[in-house]
């Protein structure tokens, strides 16, 4: 991060509405775990200039500005000096769909202004910075791999004629244990005969092959490598040698997996995040429209969770959220998908479930939470609102109905489940 302290973020706030800008600053100031330095500008042109002049950890961008509107704002910012910065966009109540579209244009996340709250704002900004840092590490790692290539030279048998030091460093095999052997002694057994046949056919036809190969080191460890093989011909055009150049991509694979996890999971609870939930809901909606496959959603949050944080502190509150996710996952069906919607609010996509079936699931979740006290915090309850998706219904409408049912459960006394039935 820009500051020497890991608990500090420098934020470029791009917001033309003075009241909204002040609200964001006030919310950031109210956060205790992380401190924020906020630089506020009112136009896209000013934001691009600031991004070029100063260092920021993250950008919070309103999509409606005097000199730019909608997705064009995101595209323009991503195409300018701020292209390297983590980006979170803000939308109004009627523009939530634009926030989701912005994810496709390089935004790390989005939030609606009416949903702004210190914990959510803090988590979204920290997540954006963390994901950006991981991506940069991945890029640097790729550069490092390029400078440490292993080389193997074989004849047309093929038998290995020569290997370099990087080959030994990666595989563990010294030159004296490699030269004279068929390169297949490195095989992990994960590729079938058809894989190698296709590889050699490509070499014979085009003189070159490139791809991912899983091999086995001298110590028995199976690992991935990126390999490029080139055929070498003599003056008559006959292939006489093959040169293989490769590098170990184990760390790259690990980082890619971690980056994928960060892109799809909530950092605190390891449940799916809002972005990934939207993707799954779109898939469920497509199946509903094409195959008439039912699905429902359950929206729930912890009752009086603020009191838990006030009495026991945020570490206990975080532990409660993690335990809530654990209990929920234990009681879900295999087809169900759980994610963190924001703050203490969670959402379950109940695939292949009608409203009545979703209500049965909701009641099971409610009991799993209420029946056993939580460590330190004691008895915790949840209120759950459910809604079945109907043909032609937008996701926004479905979310609103589940949210309406949730608050009906709250009004009924909490620790309740309610099903919304469209009028």
UniProtKB/TrEMBL annotation:
GO terms for molecular function: catalytic activity. The modification 4-aspartylphosphate is found at residue 62. InterPro entries: CheY-like_superfamily, DGC-Regulatory_Protein, GGDEF_dom, Nucleotide_cyclase, PAC, PAS, PAS-assoc_C, PAS-like_dom_sf. PROSITE patterns: GGDEF (PS50887), PAC (PS50113), PAS (PS50112), RESPONSE_REGULATORY (PS50110). Residues 209-261 form the PAC domain. Its cofactor is Mg(2+). Keywords: Phosphoprotein. Residues 134-193 form the PAS domain. Residues 10-128 form the Response regulatory domain. GO terms for biological process: phosphorelay signal transduction system. Residues 293-422 form the GGDEF domain. This is PAS domain S-box-containing protein/diguanylate cyclase (GGDEF) domain-containing protein. It comes from Thiohalospira halophila DSM 15071.
């Amino acid at each position: 991060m820009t500051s020497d302290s890991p608990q500090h973020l420098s934020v470029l706030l791009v917001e033309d509405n003075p009241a909204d800008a002040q609200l964001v600053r006030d919310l950031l100031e109210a956060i205790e775990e992380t401190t924020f330095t906020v630089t506020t500008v009112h136009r896209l042109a000013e934001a691009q200039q600031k991004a070029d002049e100063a260092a920021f950890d993250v950008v919070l961008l309103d999509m409606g500005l005097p000199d730019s509107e909608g997705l064009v704002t995101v595209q323009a910012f991503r195409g300018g000096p701020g292209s390297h910065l983590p980006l979170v966009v803000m939308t109004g109540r009627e523009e939530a769909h634009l926030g989701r579209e912005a994810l496709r244009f390089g935004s790390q996340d989005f939030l609606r202004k009416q949903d702004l709250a210190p914990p959510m704002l803090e988590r979204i900004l920290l997540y954006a910075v963390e994901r950006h840092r991981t991506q940069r590490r991945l890029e640097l790692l790729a550069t490092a791999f390029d400078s440490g290539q292993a080389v193997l030279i074989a004849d047309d048998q093929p038998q290995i004629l020569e290997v370099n030091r990087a080959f030994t460093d990666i595989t563990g095999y010294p030159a004296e244990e490699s030269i004279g052997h068929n390169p297949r002694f490195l095989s992990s057994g994960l590729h079938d005969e058809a894989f190698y046949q296709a590889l050699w056919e490509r070499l014979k036809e085009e003189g070159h092959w490139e791809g991912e190969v899983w091999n086995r080191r001298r110590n028995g460890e199976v690992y991935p490598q990126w390999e490029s093989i080139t055929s070498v011909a003599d003056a008559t055009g006959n292939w006489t040698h093959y040169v293989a150049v490769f590098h170990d991509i184990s760390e790259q694979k690990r980082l890619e997996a971690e980056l994928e996890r960060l892109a799809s999971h909530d950092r605190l609870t390891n449940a799916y995040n809002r972005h990934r939930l939207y993707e799954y809901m779109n898939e469920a909606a497509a199946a509903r429209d094409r195959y008439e496959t039912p699905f429902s959603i359950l929206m729930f949050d912890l009752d009086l969770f603020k009191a838990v944080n006030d009495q026991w502190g945020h570490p206990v509150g975080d532990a409660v959220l993690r335990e809530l996710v654990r209990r929920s996952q234990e009681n879900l069906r295999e087809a169900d998908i759980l994610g963190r919607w924001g703050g203490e609010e969670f959402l379950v996509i109940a695939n292949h479930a009608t409203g009545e079936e979703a209500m049965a699931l909701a009641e099971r979740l409610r009991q799993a939470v209420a029946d056993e006290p939580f460590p330190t915090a004691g008895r915790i309850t949840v209120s759950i609102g459910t809604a079945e998706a109907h043909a032609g219904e937008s996701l926004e409408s479905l979310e609103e109905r589940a949210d309406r049912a949730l608050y009906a459960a709250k009004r009924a006394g909490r620790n309740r489940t309610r099903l919304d039935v469209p009028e």
